[in-house]
Amino acid sequence: IDISSFKGKPILIVYEDRDSSKQNDALKKDLARLAKGDKYKSAVALAAVANVAAFNFWPVKGFVKDAIRKESKTQGTTIFCDWTGGFRKAFSLRDNASSVVLVGKDGNVLFAADGSISADARARLIQLLRQQVEGSS
Q: 1, 19, 110, 124: which one has the fewest Cβ atoms less than 10 Å from its Cβ?
């Protein structure tokens, strides 16, 4: 992913591995409700990234690629793969945890959390997204 290609849009990064993918199901449901309208789908860049560094060897890599493609179709969004852990390192994300980062339109990090995100933090993230898209406070 070249994050600079999303310039001018807020970027929501969701970084998970297979074991941490359920940690933030409540957040994903909140985001799905927010994305029901086209406004958020077109105004927010979603970078769903799978931490697959543990599977970067033959023949497992091929099976993982197939599974990621299938999940991408199921979710209706591209899921990017971090085969080397380089993305995780570049963003200082924790290994073996669900990580969520919101980068504002100006390129500044507005929100970052690892692990299960509390209801209060989810509400804060949704409010920050609304501010980025709608300009509300």
A: 19
Q: What is the pLDDT, as a whole number, of residue 104?
A: 95
CA distance 116 to 136: 27
Q: How many CB atoms lie within 10 A of CB 3?
A: 15
Q: In what order do the strands lie in the sheet with 99-103?
A: 79-82, 45-51, 11-16, 99-103, 109-114
**What pTM value is reported for the model?**
0.91
Cα distances from 26 to residues 3, 32, 95, 106, in angstroms, run: 26, 10, 21, 27
Q: What is the pLDDT of residues 47-80, one digit of tens each?
A: 999 999 999 999 999 999 999 999 999 988 899 9
